[in-house]
Amino acid sequence: MTSPVLIAPSILSADFSRLSNEIRSVEKAGADWIHVDVMDGHFVPNLTIGPVVLSWIRKVTSLFLDVHLMITDPEKYIPSFAESGADNLTFHREAARDPKTLIRQIKNLRKKAGISIRPKTPVASIVPYLDQLDVVLVMTVEPGFGGQKFMPEMLDKIRILDQKIRKDKLKCKIEVDGGIHSGTAPLTVREGARVLVAGNSIFGQKDRSAALKSIRKSIDKIREIS
Predict the structure, then answer these.
(1) Is 37 a catalytic residue?
(2) Catalytic choice (73, 162, 177, 207)
(3) What are the chain's domains?
(4) pTM higher than 0.90, yes or no?
């Protein structure tokens, strides 16, 4: 049986002046997860939210909170974000001195653990940790800002990871983030992606339900063909 594809709207593209309403709108529309981008202005050239805001998001929704730490020294902040309500904590391979220690830290806090890689980072740098992970996040744009164009050359990374995960019978889900919409979503699913982070293509639309359905419909078509 083919595993389901989850859609995780990214609040990076939401209206922060009415964030609770924005989150409720995509939850009502059928979102599976809520994706929360945490940026520190150092690892990426942008600033977003901290643990306090995450704790308020947790009060607004019961959906799975997928927290993407685009920050330096993630080990210093993992406990705070875990306490604030994260369900999954994904750190960047490029920011990790010792990935095994960070994974252990997250697991000890009884959270799911993920690793993300930037477009220029080779897949080989995370393969040794796949058996310890719940999520591996492939960035399909340069991290830092929403609304960027999907990088099709990242499809090879998804394919390589999927082959490795299948071969070793691992439980790790492949997640993709960047430029995901009804045109690009099926391309990633065809190669093995099972969690799709979508920002502008959902929050940028007035009808969030129609936006989510459009992405799901595009996925269903490609899966029927394959």
Answers:
(1) yes
(2) 177
(3) 6-225 (3.20.20.70)
(4) yes
